[in-house]
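Q: Please design a sequence for this.
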C-alpha cells in the first residue's frame, strides 16, 4: 500500500514538467531556425557597421551570411523546387528564392538574409493565425465524448460511443456530456446547450423529448434511449458541415487565387524586363543597379498578404458566426448575405414558438359522440405541433386515445380516417368544403387557428388553437429593417386572419396566409422574377425544404435536430432565435469589409513601393515592409473577425 501511495505521489509533479518540456520543445521547433538566423544576421551587421575586424572579409563574410541564410532560406528553396517539379513554377517561394539569391549574387548579403528571415517570420505568424482559427472552431464543435455508459446484460458498461446501437439505453451523470442523440426515459433534467446553440441559458427536457449529443447534463442522473448512431448524430453532422465550410469559396476568394496565378508570372517577366530593357534606353547602364531594382520589385510583388489573409478573413467569419450559433455552409454564403435585400419568413416555428395550446373546444348542439377522443386518435401519430397540442389537451381532459384503424393525410387540408368504426375528418375549412360539410358560423369569426372535426360526415365541433410569438421576434424585425433589408414578407399555412394579425403586430411589410407548401414555392418564384432581389428564406427546415432550396440563401431556423435543415439550408440558425438573421447579415458585412480592407491595404502599399523600387528610390528594407509587413498587418486585421 505504502509503495503504491509513494509511486502515485511521485508521478504528479512530473506531469507539469513534461508538459512544460513539450511546450518549450514545440516553441524551439517552430521558432528556433528564425532565432538562430536573426542572431547570426545581427552579429554580421554589427561586424559590418562597427567593429569591421580584418578577418570579416571575403569568403568568411560571405560564408557568415550564408550561415545566417540557410536556417530560414533552405526550407523555402526546397518548397519552391518541389513546386517547380509539380509544374507550379510561379509561387511565392520562387519569388523569394530568386530575389534573395539574386541579392547574394550582387553582394547585398545582409538584405538577402533579412528578406528571407522576415518572410519566414511572416509565414510563422500566418500559420499561427490560421491554426488559431481552426482551433477555435474545433474547440467549439468537436465536443463529442470518448465514452458512453450503456446498459448491457443487467449492468452499465463503458464503451466508445461508436459501439452503441440504436435502441440501447445509456446513462448520463450530472456534469457529463451527452454522448449520443437519444429520447429521454427519465422524467426530466436541465441541460447546458451552449456548445451547440451558443445559448447560455440552460434548457429543460422532459420524458419523451429528444436530447442531442454535446449537451451537458446539469441536474440528475438520467437515462436515454439512443435514437441515432454516433456518426449520424446532429453534432457529428454539424461538425462535418463547419469543417467543410471552407471548401465553398466566396467569389472574392476565388478571384484572388486565380489572380495570384496570373499576377506572379507577369511580375516575374516585368522584373526580367526591368533588369535588361534599360540597357537600350539609359545612358551609363549598370547591370547591378537595375538587377537590384528588379529584385526589390520581386520581393514587393509577392502576393502572400492577399493569398493568406483573405481566406483567413472568411475563416474567421465562419468561426465568429459558429460561436453565435449560426452555421454557414461556405464563405460564398457569407458574401451573399451582404447582398440580401428581401427576407421571406415562415411564421410557425420561425417567428412563433410553434408550441400550440388548445384555447377552447366547441361542441355542436345535439352531438353526443366523444369527438375529441376521435380527433386525438387521428392526430396521435403526427409530430406536427398542432397535433401534439390536441393530444395533450385530450389527455388533460382524462380521455383515452385509441389507435386509428385507417388514416390518410391530405396535404394542406388535414386528415381523414377511421377510428372505432367511425369515419373521422379533422382539418381546416378547406377540408370541410372539399367534403361538403357545413361548419359553424361562429368558427369563421375566430382569429386564431381553428381545427374542424366531423364524424360520419356530420359536423361535430371545432377547436381553437393559438401559438405564441418568440421573445425576440419584434427585435428581429427591427434589426432586419435597420440592416438594410428592403422588404420583409411572411408566408404561412395558417389562417390568413392570424397571419395578418402577427404581421401587423411585428411590422412586417407583407403577409400571405392559407398557403399550401407548393403555394409558398410559387410565391418565392414570383419574387425571383425581379432580378434585383436577393432573397433569403427562413423556415423551420422540416416542411419548408423546397423553398429553402429555391431561395438565394436558405436559412433553417432551429434546425439543430432536423435532418432536412442541415441537408437543404445554406445557413443553419441553431439557437431558434429569429434575431440571429440580422446577426448573420452583420457578420457577413463585417467579414467582407475586412477582406476588402486587406485587398486595399496590400495593393495600395505594393503599388507605391513598386513605383519607388522601379525608380531606384526604395531599398530591400522598404521591400520587406511592403511584403512581410503588409502581410502581417492584413493577418492581424483578419484575426479581428475571430473576436
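A: Design:
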Amino acid at each position: 500500500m505504502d509503495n503504491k501511495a509513494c509511486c502515485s505521489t511521485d508521478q504528479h509533479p512530473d506531469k507539469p514538467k513534461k508538459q512544460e518540456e513539450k511546450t518549450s520543445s514545440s516553441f524551439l521547433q517552430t521558432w528556433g531556425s528564425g532565432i538562430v538566423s536573426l542572431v547570426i544576421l545581427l552579429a554580421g551587421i554589427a561586424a559590418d557597421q562597427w567593429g569591421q575586424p580584418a578577418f570579416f572579409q571575403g569568403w568568411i563574410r560571405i560564408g557568415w551570411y550564408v550561415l545566417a541564410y540557410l536556417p530560414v532560406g533552405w526550407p523555402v528553396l526546397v518548397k519552391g523546387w518541389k513546386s517547380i517539379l509539380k509544374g507550379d513554377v510561379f509561387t511565392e517561394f520562387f519569388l523569394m528564392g530568386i530575389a534573395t539569391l539574386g541579392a547574394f549574387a550582387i553582394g547585398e548579403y545582409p538584405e538577402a538574409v533579412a528578406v528571407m528571415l522576415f518572410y519566414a517570420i511572416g509565414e510563422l505568424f500566418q500559420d499561427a493565425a490560421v491554426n488559431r482559427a481552426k482551433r477555435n472552431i474545433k474547440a467549439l464543435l468537436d465536443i463529442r465524448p470518448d465514452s458512453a455508459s450503456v446498459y448491457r446484460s443487467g449492468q452499465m458498461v463503458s464503451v466508445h460511443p461508436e459501439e452503441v446501437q440504436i435502441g440501447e439505453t445509456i446513462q448520463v451523470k450530472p456534469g457529463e456530456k451527452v454522448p449520443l442523440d437519444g429520447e429521454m426515459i427519465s422524467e426530466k433534467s436541465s441541460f447546458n446547450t451552449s456548445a451547440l446553440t451558443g445559448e447560455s441559458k440552460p434548457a429543460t427536457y422532459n420524458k419523451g423529448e429528444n436530447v442531442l449529443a454535446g449537451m451537458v447534463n446539469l441536474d440528475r442522473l438520467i437515462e436515454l434511449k439512443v435514437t441515432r448512431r454516433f456518426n449520424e448524430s446532429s453534432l457529428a453532422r454539424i461538425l462535418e458541415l463547419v469543417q467543410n465550410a471552407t471548401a465553398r469559396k466566396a467569389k472574392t476568394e476565388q478571384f484572388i487565387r486565380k489572380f495570384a496565378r496570373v499576377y506572379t508570372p507577369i511580375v516575374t517577366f516585368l522584373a526580367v524586363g526591368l533588369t535588361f530593357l534599360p540597357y537600350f534606353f539609359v545612358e551609363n547602364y549598370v547591370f547591378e543597379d537595375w538587377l537590384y531594382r528588379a529584385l526589390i520589385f520581386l520581393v514587393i510583388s509577392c502576393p502572400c498578404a492577399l493569398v493568406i489573409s483573405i481566406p483567413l478573413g472568411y475563416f474567421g467569419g465562419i468561426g465568429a458566426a459558429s460561436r453565435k450559433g449560426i452555421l454557414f455552409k461556405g464563405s460564398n454564403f457569407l458574401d451573399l448575405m451582404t447582398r440580401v435585400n428581401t427576407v421571406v419568413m415562415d411564421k410557425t416555428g420561425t417567428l412563433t414558438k410553434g408550441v400550440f395550446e388548445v384555447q377552447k373546444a366547441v361542441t355542436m348542439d345535439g352531438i353526443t359522440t366523444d369527438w375529441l377522443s376521435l380527433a386525438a386518435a387521428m392526430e396521435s401519430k403526427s409530430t406536427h405541433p398542432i397535433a401534439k397540442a390536441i393530444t395533450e389537451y385530450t389527455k388533460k381532459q382524462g380521455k383515452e386515445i385509441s389507435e386509428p384503424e385507417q388514416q390518410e393525410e391530405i396535404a394542406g387540408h388535414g386528415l381523414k380516417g377511421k377510428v372505432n368504426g367511425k369515419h373521422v375528418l379533422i382539418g381546416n375549412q378547406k377540408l370541410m368544403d372539399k367534403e361538403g360539410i357545413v361548419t359553424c358560423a361562429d368558427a369563421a369569426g375566430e382569429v386564431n387557428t381553428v381545427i374542424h372535426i366531423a364524424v360520419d360526415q356530420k359536423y361535430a365541433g371545432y377547436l381553437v388553437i393559438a401559438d405564441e410569438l418568440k421573445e425576440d421576434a419584434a427585435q428581429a424585425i427591427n434589426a432586419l429593417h435597420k440592416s438594410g433589408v428592403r422588404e420583409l414578407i411572411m408566408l404561412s399555412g395558417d389562417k390568413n386572419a392570424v397571419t395578418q394579425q402577427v404581421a401587423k403586430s411585428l411590422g412586417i411589410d407583407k403577409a400571405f396566409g392559407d398557403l399550401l407548401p407548393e403555394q409558398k414555392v410559387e410565391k418565392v418564384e414570383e419574387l425571383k422574377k425581379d432580378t434585383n432581389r436577393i432573397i433569403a428564406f427562413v423556415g423551420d427546415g422540416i416542411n419548408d425544404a423546397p423553398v429553402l432550396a429555391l431561395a438565394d440563401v436558405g436559412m433553417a431556423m432551429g434546425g439543430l435536430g432536423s435532418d432536412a435543415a442541415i441537408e437543404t439550408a445554406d445557413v443553419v440558425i441553431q439557437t431558434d432565435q429569429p434575431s440571429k438573421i440580422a446577426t448573420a447579415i452583420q457578420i457577413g458585412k463585417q467579414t467582407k469589409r475586412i477582406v476588402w480592407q486587406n485587398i486595399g491595404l496590400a495593393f495600395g502599399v505594393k503599388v507605391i513601393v513598386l513605383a519607388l523600387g522601379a525608380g531606384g528610390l526604395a531599398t530591400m528594407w522598404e521591400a520587406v515592409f511592403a511584403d512581410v509587413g503588409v502581410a502581417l498587418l492584413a493577418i492581424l486585421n483578419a484575426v479581428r473577425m475571430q473576436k
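Q: Thanks. Anything notable?
A: The radius of gyration is 34 Å. Residues 190 and 204 are 4 Å apart (CA to CA).
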